[in-house]
């Protein structure tokens, strides 16, 4: 398999998957232009229910392993509500807002938590998006039907990514 297939969640060894949901447990309000995060070589990471990971936005879009990520905005920490797989290219939603696309992972704090890097037009912070603790966080496979999480009306009704409202 070539490297392009391994990175594309719609080809190669990847099939369908459920959306991973969670809850924002702490809002962060700072940004940095010299953070020095490094993009891990892995295009996906498994997450367990109950884990807490940091959500970080960046205007970087390069996915080469080791890519330095300096310009970042910190959104906050999210508790994972159901185990699953996070893939590069997943859409990241907080509430009804599309925040950006999952770019990759920085593991400078692992095993405590991953920095989940989210590609967005510009780095934004939790205060920029008026985030609040307890907001729902969703990692939705691009173009794939995902099962609604337990906090959504209807419980297990199918949800299409295009049904969610983009409010950037």
UniProtKB/TrEMBL annotation:
Q: Where is this region: Disordered?
A: 149-168
Listed name of the protein: DUF6917 domain-containing protein
Organism expressing this protein natively: Streptomyces gibsoniae
What domain of life does the native source organism fall in? Bacteria
Q: Which residues form the DUF6917 domain?
A: 16-139
